[in-house]
Amino acid sequence: MTKESADSYSHVLKYTGIFGGVQGLNILVSLVRNKLIAEILGPGGMGLASLFNSTVNFISQATNLGISFSAVKHVSELFDRGDKAAISRFVMVVRAWSLLTALLGMMVCIVAGPFLSGFTFSWGDHSLHFILLAPAVGLIAITGGETAILKGARQLRSLAVVQIYSVLAALFVSVPVYYVFNQSGIVPVIVLMALASMLLTIRHSYRLYPLRLRGADGLLGQGMGMVRLGLAFVVAGVMGSGAEMLIRTFLNKASDLDVVGLYNAGFMLTVTYAGMVFSAMETDYFPRLSAVGSDVAKANLTVNRQIEVSMLIVSPMLAVLIVTLPVLIPLLFSSRFLPVVGMAQVAVFSMYLKAVSLPVSYITLARGDSVGYMVLEAVYDVVLVALIVVGYRHWGLFGTGAALSLSYLADLLVVGAYVYVRYHYRVSMPVVAYAAVQLSLGLAVYVVTLTAGPLVYWTLGPLLCLVSLLVSLHILHRKTSLWASLTGKLKKKFHRHA
Question: For tag attachment on the chain, is the N or C end more exposed, with fewer CB atoms within 10 Å?
Fold first, then answer.
């Protein structure tokens, strides 16, 4: 392997680890918070909170005009030019549009309250709850605009700090409120968490670009290009959050809030938390893929190396997760959540598939193919909802976990076929080999959890996890220069202190 190739692998591994590490810290705090909330609210309370949160996210996605995404590109371009006057002016444009979308989102939430109550719940009138959630929608819109400003200005450290303190604020706000008010505190907590996140974000963005009110005339007109770019992602976001809202509404009406809470716990552990390694995609991988433009060979190389590193890093973690879920779920939530173990274990395979499908799906974004991106997202969302409905009706919670994995398999096949035909993407043999080995080990671990007694379970299961880890370490050691670099640093420190 050439030095250039080794350095490429090292770069991907380094930034995947850095951004995954930040998410890991956030997730650790979130796990503590969820444990305490699960003990206080139980599955039913967490199910209710999940319904309200998914509705807030849906309205936010439907009314934010894509500002949180599209503004990043415009701010980034001005930042690279070094035109301070232009960037200060455009920051005012972003803030004006963010305020407009905040007011729009709040109005929609208030007006749609009675409809949302009837659609989401089969019992009681919850219109007032949805009306009281309107401030959260507005606060999220403003936070999205300010976050876009920080991203465009490359303030990655500030973004990491905001994330960490937002999670800590959520812990120290939500737990006391839930302890005192139980389920009655769900709506106040959602609003307070949105407020805390906004205040922490504007603390950094206002310090970078102070708030200016003078010269605000004509701002909305200057932002039309940004809004047009963001509309495609509004549609995709609405479909995604709408699918999640539909799923939770279906489970609530087909069963009860306990089932919604159980499904949400399983979803959090597998799709949300286990997917932390993919957090480097938007921050580091997407700009690199965009930079190669229409060069097919370079694009294929970039995509395949990202898949290889993602698969090698995430697979041992997923194998361990499958084995330890019967212990983790009562530890991280409570014993009342044990019925979700089977669902979560089979849903873990969705993350194996995501390690392959996500880097591939970014090809459409990197090429500016917004229509293709929207169509592919729509296909995935329709398949996901349909499989969840069928899976739950026939096999209960286990069926929802199987549906999650099958939906990611369908997404991989559809996206793979699309980019194969349109952008000439070709999967490399190392990707096929690594995926085959690691997925086989994951399936073996899963079979052990289904068939083995306690002694074999806790002997063979961890042994297979160790094999998965050793395979990944061996390949990464062979393909990167990080090990030599790390050894060199340790030797220098040793000689310095000797």
Answer: C
* Contact predicate 373/422, CB 8 Å: no
Q: Mention every residue, 6+ apart, whose C-beta is less than 8 A from residue 77.
A: none
Cβ-in-10-Å burial (0-12, 13-18, 19+) of 356 comes to buried
The residue type at 129: H
Distance CA 129, CA 306 (A): 44
**Which residues in 147-241 belong to E strands, given as ranges?**
none
Per-residue pLDDT of 143-172, as tens digits, reads 998 988 888 787 777 887 888 888 888 888
Amino acid in the structure at residue 95: R
Strand, coil or helix: 218? coil
pTM beyond cutoff 0.85: no
Sign, CA torsion 115/120/122/128: negative
Over residues 338-394, the pLDDT tens digits come to: 899 999 999 999 999 999 998 898 888 778 787 888 889 889 999 999 999 999 999
* Residue found by looking up tokens 């219109």 in the block: 127
The sign of the torsion formed by the CA atoms of 343, 344, 345, 347 equals positive
- Give the integer Cα–Cα distance in Å for 416 and 303: 12
Could you tell me if 195 and 166 are in contact, meaning their C-beta atoms sit under 8 angstroms apart?
Answer: no
